[in-house]
Design a protein that fits this description.
mainly alpha
Length: 380
């Protein structure tokens, strides 16, 4: 049953460029489908989550992460009576703006772009879906609905303080009401992101042998999960044991979000999606107890995984790749691909050029960035 506070595709605020509606797909379903078919979405299969894409076939990439986020988001949305198609669209699009090499690449590009307005991966996602995807005859971007764009822009909450230039450039033309909270569907996509990476980073860290199963079993929430598995399946195979425990951990996180969201929704009693936007706080989130336990787990992952010597070493190497590609293309824009050189011909100053170079580099996959660095710089 659809909740009164769910986003209704029949009352969506529309698209910036008007289009005829589909006879068999809702507007939010069309948004989801366009995101899946976007070039930027395909490139996520070769972009880092934690480990550089070529380090192993097992580890999550931005694409597999986004699919896992969408699966979690659909489950939570269904339990709360929300629109699953809008939820899934935002979930699938939430990482479109990520650079090669994950947050390491973003950190490097943010420093390089500081004199030119900075770089923010959420704002870049908006730039991709409103400008950089150029496949349709009638418009640049994907011409997504207002609700999907709002969700991408502020699924993590209102955009406060200075608005990143890439987001401001679009928002000045199509007001996404950045000062409010997003719909419940977008909030679900945001918390599904947290559920997914808290779960799969533990999987990948074990696979990389950065920590042991015994260390994992000593962490909050996980200790009870392992105890339950050992009590139910004494003597279980090592790999099955840890999978069963992590499966239970995953379920606890999802159930906690649903239970706590239902409690907050009963308190608020929203009668429309705008009541959720105007609530003044995030409605869809972990309970305080689970959030506190997750902080311990995230601290463990930070120390043992994200700052592991092997990961730090690779971070330094790929940071150098970005740091050297950016000034190279600034000095040699003629080395950009043909379709990018056409944009360069229209620039009026160094800021415009830097933003084109940033768009190009941020869109690279891990392997392409490494190949271009080898071809243009280190192998030159």
């Amino acid at each position: 049953m659809t909740a009164v506070y769910a986003s209704d595709p029949n009352h969506a605020r529309g698209r910036r460029v008007r289009e005829e509606e589909s006879t068999f797909r809702s507007c939010f379903q069309r948004d989801r489908d366009r995101i899946i078919h976007a070039s930027a979405f395909r490139r996520l299969k070769h972009k880092t989550q934690v480990f550089i894409e070529h380090e192993g076939d097992y580890y999550r990439t931005r694409l597999t992460h986004s699919i896992e986020v969408a699966q979690v988001a659909r489950t939570i949305a269904g339990a709360l009576g929300l629109n699953g198609e809008l939820t899934e669209a935002v979930a699938l699009a939430h990482d479109l703006g990520h650079t090669p090499f994950g947050h390491t690449g973003e950190d490097a590009l943010s420093v390089l772009m500081a004199p030119y307005g900075g770089f923010d991966h959420n704002a870049q996602a908006i730039r991709i879906v409103t400008h950089l995807e150029r496949h349709y005859a009638d418009f640049d971007g994907l011409n997504l609905t207002w609700e999907t764009l709002e969700g991408i822009a502020k699924h993590n909450g209102p955009v406060v303080g200075p608005v990143p230039w890439a987001l401001k450039a679009y928002n000045d033309q199509h007001d996404l009401e950045l000062y409010t909270y997003a719909s419940a569907e977008a909030q679900v996509a945001a918390i599904a992101d947290d559920v997914a990476y808290n779960h799969h980073d533990l999987h990948d860290g074990l696979r990389a042998e950065l920590f042991s199963t015994d260390e994992l079993a000593a962490l909050p929430i996980l200790n009870a999960c392992f105890e339950e598995v050992d009590g139910t399946y004494p003597g279980l195979n090592y790999y099955r044991r840890r999978h069963e425990a992590l499966r239970r951990f995953f379920g606890i996180l999802v159930e906690d979000v649903i239970d706590f969201a239902q409690e907050r929704l009963r308190e608020l009693e929203p009668q429309s999606v705008d009541d959720v936007r105007g609530a003044g706080r995030t409605i869809i989130r972990f309970s305080d107890d689970v959030f506190s336990d997750l902080k311990v787990i995230r601290s463990f992952l930070f120390d043992r995984m994200y700052r592991a010597p092997s990961v730090v070493k690779m971070r330094a190497q790929v940071t150098q790749v970005v740091e050297e590609l950016f000034p190279y293309f600034m000095a040699h824009p003629d080395q950009l691909p043909k379709q990018w050189r056409k944009d360069v011909q229209e620039v009026s100053d160094e800021i415009d050029l830097a933003r084109i170079v940033s768009d190009y580099i941020s869109g690279m996959t891990d392997r392409f960035a490494l190949q271009e660095h080898e071809r243009l710089i280190s192998g030159g």
